[in-house]
Amino acid sequence: MQESVSLFYTFHFYLFGIIAVVSALLFVTRKSPVAAALWLVNTMFSLAALYVMLDAHFIGAIQVLVYAGAIMVVFLFVIMLLNLGDPSEIADARGQGWKLAAGFVGLALLAQTFALTRATTPPSLTLPYGAGAERVAREGAIAPIAEPLFREYLLAFEVTSILLLAAVVGAVVLGRRRTVHAR
After folding, report:
1. Which helix (H) or strand (E) holds 50?
2. Nearest to 68 by CA among 48, 92, 93
3. Local structure of 151: helix, strand or coil
4. Does the residue 150 lie in any domain?
5. What is the overall mean pLDDT for the chain?
């Protein structure tokens, strides 16, 4: 039983790794910024699945909430504000083959979900138990991450947020200037 669980996690670890790499490649090769943003969201979900499989549930949740949620909303807001996406470029899956591939992937994910719910014992990937695991068991999963972030790295954290805000404002200014000169 233990060997089948190990094989199950090894297979899915490589599956989500391949999905993340392929999605990242599709992200950088798309012409439409909206389609590229959606491929980036797919990459973020695959990375979150990898974190969850490594028993880093908090990091996986933050990956989905912060990157796939908040950051992508900001990206799509800037794309819509600058009107960069042409409606004909949004749909990258134009042929029948892509629709069949999407249906196959959907059926495979459904089969995996069914297999997970039919398991008699909940599968878990055990990591080596060390000093870090003792601290997590004693203090919880958030404190070891939040403490250094808001103590030693607070300045870097705030400077990064200011740089992201400046980049969004700069993109809006450049987009407005380009549309004013085009008229």
Report:
1. helix 33-53
2. 48
3. coil
4. no
5. 76
In a domain, 96, yes or no: no
Q: Does 122 map to a domain?
A: no
CATH classification of the domain holding 65: 1.20.120.1200
The per-residue pLDDT for 79 is 73
Query: In Å, what is the CA distance from 24 to each residue of 20, 29, 146?
Result: 6, 9, 28
Contacts of 83 (CB under 8 A, 6+ apart): 175, 179
Band (pLDDT 50/70/90 cuts) for residue 37 is: confident
Q: Which two tokens stand for residue 101?
A: 């591939």
Q: Is residue 160 part of a domain?
A: no
Under 8 Å CB-to-CB from 81, ≥6 apart: which residues? 172, 175
Query: Range of 18's domain?
Result: 7-91+130-140
Q: Model-level pTM? A: 0.54
Residue 86: per-residue pLDDT: 56
The mean per-residue pLDDT over the stretch 38-54 comes to 88
